[in-house]
Amino acid sequence: MIKTEIALEKNKTEELSDIEILQCAKELLAGNGMLTKSEAETFVTSDQNRKIASDGSTRRFWRLCKNDSPFCIVAAPAGRGRDELAESGSAWKIGNHLRENGVPVPELYGWDKSTGVLLFEDLGDIRLHDIVAREKSMQIQPQTTVVEHYHSALKHLAAMQCRGGVDFDESWCWDGARYDSRLMIEKESEYFLRAFWQGLLAHEVVDGVLDELKEIARLAGEAPVNFFLHRDFQSRNIMIKEGAVRFIDFQGGRFGPLGYDLASLLIDPYTSLPRWLQDNLVAVYLKAIGNYVAIEEAEFNKQFKLLAFQRNMQIVGAFSFLFKVRKKTFFIDFIKPSLISLSNRLEDPLFKDYPIIRTMVNRGLKELASA
Q: What is the distance between the alpha carbons of residues 337 and 273, in angstroms, rounded to a whole number?
């Protein structure tokens, strides 16, 4: 497939309407040869084109069909601000880099840099989360199909982290090029405090907690960051197409440590994997990453715990924000399991010197349960 990158001349002071976005998609499809010009003329008005919802993203999505069959996905920013257009550009550039390095991401068909409209392969509607939820609803222990998908995801994750880090250009990143202690504080620890503790529970920040959080971030920041980091590697961003795992929502990618994406997948509140399965999957991952880089297991496990704490703080903050501010009620059900995971994490001896954040998390859990 010929990938197409264009820059249409549009009025940059106005937001694009849905029909303008689909018109842009039409031009991209004709430009890359997926449709003839005559087909493209009538394609946009087809009643087969359907707008689809996203999870926490503000981006807009459409599924385009041809002859009643899925054809491709159109993604467009909510607006035309600098960050929104930059995020779209990151999806295009990082996605092409990953695909060229054998990572199972969707094929990208075209991008219009002036509007941020992006076309990519339709991977269907089945997420890893859906398969886990189906087995849970049938009261089946996670095994067989679920475990096989997790094993496959972890093997591809190890390859993505190492191959994706080679020749990765930091200029592709729209929201910071590296995952470091500063980011942990601003976008994870303080996100927890702003969105959950102050926003959802309406409490004042407890004296001394920022000192604890900064020290944890400092320790977590000691992990090497010369690998590709997806930063939202969880079960709703892993699609299953024709029995194989495929990764989406990689536009926040940057350089980072190995343990963060692993933690994102294993402590994922959408699935709440049992501890025995998490432990088994860590062993699977260590074997997979060992094919690319030498790992000192004890040091990796320490880094993993610290990075899992950071990810857990980010999750609680994000879900609180999406529920409280954006009014997305879907996320309220996952705040409690996220807090339980965070509370359990803080019982590890590694966190014994941080009583303030441990007390706050346990208090928040009790208040949320009684609300």
A: 11
Domain at 301, CATH number: 3.90.1200.10
Helix axes 297-324, 209-220, angle to 10 degrees: 130
* Six-digit token string for 34: 């997926």
Residues 9, 96 within the same domain: yes
Of 120, 137, 169, the residue that ends a domain is 120
**Are 26 and 156 contained in the same domain?**
no
The yes-or-no verdict on residue 56 having pLDDT over 90 is no
**Sheet containing 69-76, strands listed edge to edge, beginning at the edge strand earlier in sequence:** 4-6, 108-112, 117-120, 69-76, 60-66, 50-52
| Same domain as 167, residue 57 | no
**Are 262 and 191 in a shared domain?**
yes
The confidence band for 306, taking pLDDT boundaries of 50, 70 and 90, is very high
Q: Contact 90/172 with Cβ under 8 angstroms?
A: yes
Tell me if the pTM is above 0.90.
yes
Q: Are residues 141 and 68 part of one domain?
A: no
Choose among 114, 18, 147: nearest CA to 74: 18
Q: How many residues does the chain have?
A: 371
211 shares a domain with 272 = yes
Predicted confidence at residue 13, as pLDDT, reads: 44
Dist CA 142 CA 146 (whole Å): 6
Structural element, H or E, at residue 239: strand 238-241
In the chain, the number of structural domains is 2
Q: Tell whether 132 and 168 lie within a shared domain.
A: yes
In angstroms, rounded to a whole number, what is the distance separating the alpha carbons of residues 191 and 265? 20
Handedness of CA 326, 330, 335, 338 (dihedral sign): negative
3-state secondary structure of 292: coil
- Helix 258-266 to helix 145-163 angle (10° resolution) is 160
Residue 127 DSSP class: B
* CB-count burial class (<10 Å; 0-12, 13-18, 19+) for 226: middle
Pairing mode of beta strands 244-247, 238-241: antiparallel
Domain-ending residue, one of 87, 120, 153: 120
Range(s) of the domain holding residue 72 = 4-120
* Least confident among 64-78, 108-122, 307-321: 64-78
Where do we find the tokens 């550009």? 89
